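Recap from last week: sequence in, structure out.
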Amino acid sequence: MKWEVYRVIFRVRSPLHIGFNKVGNLQRTRHYVTGRVMWGALTARLTRMKFLGKGPVVSSEEYQCIGRDLDENIAFTYFYPAIRRNSDYQILWPWENEDDFRRRLLGSYVSTALDYSQQAAANEALHEIEFISPNTQDTGEPIYLMGYIFEKKDTELEWKKACEYIQLGGERGYGFGKLELADMTKIQTSEIELFNGAIKFKNFQDRPLIHLHVADSPQSYARLLAHTKAINMERIEGIIEPLVVREWRSNAKQYRYAGQYVDLIGVCFAPGSKISKSADFAIGRFGIWYPALAKS
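Predicted structure tokens:
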């Protein structure tokens, strides 16, 4: 099965919050867009495009059907912040100093509910939302998101059109997560370098296969650019993260509310982890990497 590769660039047009964890009153954001977030946004947009004008309510079964089609025919890398440099785009990740990244790209929004009877903020209602800013905090340059989408040849999904109307992440009801499609380029060569040469893509029968090269020297390493299943892995140093996701399954009686269904994807190395041995990885569901045949 032949895979075709597209480099996709979005311009961030409003604050972007990709849910991570909570510290005190602060809801932190991830510094990148996961494959699952992109999958969810495209699933929602494609479903609404398909059933627009065909009824007041779209059932959760229809969303699940489109989601399964995406799983089978489309694969994603993670998307990373980038800036435009000399008519091209340069990703701003991974970074050596996280404080510099946060100071340059991140902002936050503070709000609270009011208790009018007390003429004060409601108890325990104060919260702060961290976000990726639409512009750099120091120079005001536009922030873009760079990533790659893999398409099985002859798929009928209109994902390219859906990318023109995409909104993703949290707080969308407050205007967060608006993106503008800046560029979509089909890559023609047989062996493709992605993310400015950080990884290479190869065709694979079932799933896209990528290669991460590490030079043959004691101090050399490469970085993982997606959550990677921690199975049969050698020479990796980084943060271990259990990936747990919540889904809407309103068609099942035991799951009446959004987020009640919990799916444990598995234990993974987080993006940015260092690997000191060349290896191949298959890009699985939600853009998660799975170890293939390791290469020295």
